[in-house]
Amino acid sequence: MTGGSAGTSTNLIYLAVAALVIVRFLFRELRERRVRLRSIWIRPGITAAFTVLLIVVAFTTPSSDLGFLAVAGVIGAVLGIVTGTLIVRSTTFRTAGERGAVLAQGSMITVIIWIVALALRFVARFAFAGSGASPAQQFELNAGLLVLVTAAFVVVALGFHRAIDRLAPEQTQTQTQTRSL
After folding, report:
1. How many Cβ atoms from other residues are within 10 Å of residue 3's Cβ?
2. Is the Cα torsion angle 108, 112, 115, 121 positive or negative in sign?
3. What per-residue confidence (pLDDT) applies to 131?
4. pLDDT recorded at residue 92
5. Are 148 and 77 in contact (CB under 8 A)?
6. C-alpha–C-alpha distance, residues 96 and 141, integer Å
7. The sheet that has 92-95: what strands, in order across it?
8. Maximum CA pair distance of the chain?
């Protein structure tokens, strides 16, 4: 196999994985699902840990450009906050009938937002790889994109947390009043 066809095969694998992720998000986002307070911080916690790990590795790698890393991180954080905010605003919440949970349902807008965020990641990857960026620059770009995902997940978790606080207070107060009697 030549280098060109290996690159094409790799690109096709990336596109197939992206298509699977998009299909999964379509079904997940468009279906009403129960979101519990005890589990909304798992995904942001995992991505935050990986983000910190990548940044620590970048600081300990002599070939890292910390200026480029900082710019990628700031841009990623801003885009992640915008992405997360748009997702929360485009999600419908209603009471789940249980303490610490809501029913959430995304919309086609939330699906499009996630697809655009995923596409941004692939476009940046292929644009930098095609422009002759060094592996260190690609690593720093990946760290910035992971900051984007982490920021989006944190904003979404905060929005879901607020929805749970807003939609379940009567249940919490009723249980507290019952215990005190």
Report:
1. 7
2. negative
3. 64
4. 93
5. yes
6. 40
7. 33-36, 101-105, 92-95
8. 77
Task: Categorize the per-residue pLDDT at 129 as very low, low, confident or very high, splitting at 50, 70 and 90.
Answer: low
Say what the pLDDT of residue 137 is. Answer: 73
Residue that the structure tokens 């499009």 belong to: 112
Amino acid at 11: N
Q: Which amino acid is at 64?
A: S
Q: What is the pLDDT of residue 4?
A: 52
The CA dihedral of 168, 170, 172, 173, to the nearest 10 degrees, is 160
Name the residue with tokens 């009471």: 95
CA distances 116 to 66, 125, 181, Å, are 27, 14, 53
pLDDT of residue 8: 66
Whether pLDDT at 65 is above 50: yes
- How open is the CA angle 54-72-151, to the nearest 5 degrees? 70
